[in-house]
Amino acid sequence: MSSIRTSLSQAVVNTEIELAIPTGLTVDGRAGWSVTGVFIDFVNAALAVSQVEPLSSVTVELNTESGGQSYPDKDLITFDVFQFSGAVGAASFVQLDGRSRSVLPIPRLTAQPNLYVYLNSYGLVNPATIHVEVFYDIVKLSDLEVMRLLQGGA
Hints:
Blueprint (H helix, E strand, L loop, with lengths): L1 E8 L7 E6 L8 E12 L2 H4 L6 E8 L13 E8 L15 E12 L3 E9 L6 E12 L2 H10 L2
Antiparallel strand pairs: 1-8, 2-7, 3-6, 3-8, 4-5, 4-7
């Protein structure tokens, strides 16, 4: 199993941001990624959250569409939501754990040249920073399989 890591930071608080993760796959390579899991770490959750009920969502997705994709979309690989209750410094504050590990029960096969990480948030008081690690196996594909994956995404 292999993995690739990247980081993503909002330049301005509560703005949508997207980052490409290059897979290094080419049409003539006859290879693909079998994505088996994703680890997301909301690095500065304790500093970014101080309003009541802030929310951040992070998706890892294929590149056949742009922008954040909803849960039932066929190009979505993983969808994680970080919602926190209470306010920093308040008596009712809940300890923040901004980590999420998604293990895909059925690995996701792709031949796309990029995967995309999409971060969306509201209610934060500082820009969010996340680390993303995608776990995958490299698999051999036929020309027909590569073309189907490139044409249809999923």
